[in-house]
């Protein structure tokens, strides 16, 4: 029998309570938010033989982390005009709002855009901003952008990405930070040390994917180059000293449970360390990564944490507060959101 909230007068099932809980998403890839239905609509715009829904859904099936990267590539190749990016962004904001997400900090892969070479980054950014502002006006969910470089494309391509982010934030204040994604095994974080220092001096906030598909050394490297938040950190549990440092410094961890299972980076749900990290005092946040590709979304991750990992509703409130605190929002907005989270449901 499903547990109920310890306030009978609310008469809400946990899923409804969790949907209404104000939530912040910190680890979400814009290109990874494309729903199969959206992909079909894009295909109808551009392909001589448009994808069927079944054909689109097949692109979201893969066996391992490499297969996921190939699936991600296959989906993003359907983004062929700036209007496609506007449509995708607006749809993302709508879907976030429906889950009770009040703010999101979303990765955009300039690295992939530059490698594809089909569209000018400036044109894409203008379109994305149109989708963001329209979505925010209609649904109330705010969005910041994190500009992502693909680490296995190399340092030179990352330099182009980060310098573009620094230049464009003057026109687009919604660009707040940078990060590195892609294959950790082919691009250690230490290679990007100087670029991260340059980005920091330009006023950008720093994140890094680390410890997703390789060991804890990758997380150490991300910390050492100044990453303020760590995406995934799945393998931190293999290093006791690292666990102590993460707990002591309260470095926010952008955890993505379903993502880690679907990509094969974690063997199964029982093996995932999300509850262990929380119980040991690490600053855990819940995120969805690439929702349609993993069959989940942020609300689904909150429900999963409650039902499978035994987080209490008060602990779910703490997870929501962690995400607010770890965000790059200004102090006054953080305080307002934290008050909403703390007062919610009581």
UniProtKB/TrEMBL annotation:
Record-annotated membrane-spanning stretches: none
Pfam families (alphabetical): A_deaminase (PF00962)
Organism: Granulicella sibirica
Domain of life assignment: Bacteria
Keyword rRNA-binding carried by entry: no
Family: Belongs to the metallo-dependent hydrolases superfamily. Adenosine and AMP deaminases family.
NCBIfam families: aden_deam
Keyword line: Hydrolase, Metal-binding, Zinc
Domain Adenosine deaminase positions: 22-343
Keyword Zinc on entry: yes
Gene Ontology MF terms: deaminase activity; hydrolase activity, acting on carbon-nitrogen (but not peptide) bonds, in cyclic amidines; metal ion binding
Cofactor annotation: Zn(2+)
Name of the protein: Adenosine deaminase
PANTHER family in alphabetical order: ADENINE DEAMINASE
């Amino acid at each position: 029998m499903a547990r109920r909230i310890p306030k009978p007068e609310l008469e809400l099932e946990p899923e409804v309570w969790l949907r209404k809980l104000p939530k912040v998403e910190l680890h979400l890839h814009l290109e990874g938010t494309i729903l199969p239905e959206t992909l079909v609509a894009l295909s109808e715009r551009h392909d001589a033989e448009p994808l069927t829904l079944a054909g689109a859904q097949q692109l979201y099936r893969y066996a391992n982390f490499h297969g996921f990267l190939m699936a991600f590539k296959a989906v993003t190749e359907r983004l062929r005009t700036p209007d496609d990016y506007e449509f995708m962004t607006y749809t993302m904001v709508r879907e976030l709002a429906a889950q009770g997400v009040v703010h999101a900090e979303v990765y955009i892969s300039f690295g992939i855009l530059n490698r594809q070479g089909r569209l000018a980054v400036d044109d894409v950014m203008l379109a994305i901003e149109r989708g963001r502002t329209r979505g925010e006006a209609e649904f109330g969910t705010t969005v910041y952008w994190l500009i992502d470089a693909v680490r296995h494309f190399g340092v030179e391509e990352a330099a182009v990405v980060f310098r573009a982010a620094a230049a464009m934030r003057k026109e687009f204040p919604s660009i707040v930070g940078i990060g590195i994604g892609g294959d950790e095994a082919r691009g250690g974080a230490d290679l990007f040390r100087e670029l991260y220092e340059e980005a920091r001096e330009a006023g950008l906030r720093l994140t890094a994917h680390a410890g997703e598909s390789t060991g804890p050394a990758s997380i150490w490297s991300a910390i050492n180059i100044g990453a303020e938040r760590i995406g995934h950190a799945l393998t931190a549990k293999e290093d006791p000293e690292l666990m102590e440092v993460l707990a002591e410094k309260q470095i926010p961890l952008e955890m993505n449970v379903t993502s880690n299972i679907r990509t094969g980076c974690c063997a199964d749900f029982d093996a995932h360390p999300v509850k262990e990290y929380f119980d040991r005092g690490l600053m855990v946040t819940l995120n969805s990564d690439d929702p349609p590709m993993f069959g989940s979304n942020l609300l689904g991750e909150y429900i999963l944490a409650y039902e499978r990992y035994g987080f209490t509703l008060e602990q779910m409130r703490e997870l929501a507060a962690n995400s607010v605190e770890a965000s790059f929002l200004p102090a006054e907005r953080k305080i307002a959101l934290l008050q909403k989270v703390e007062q919610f449901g009581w």
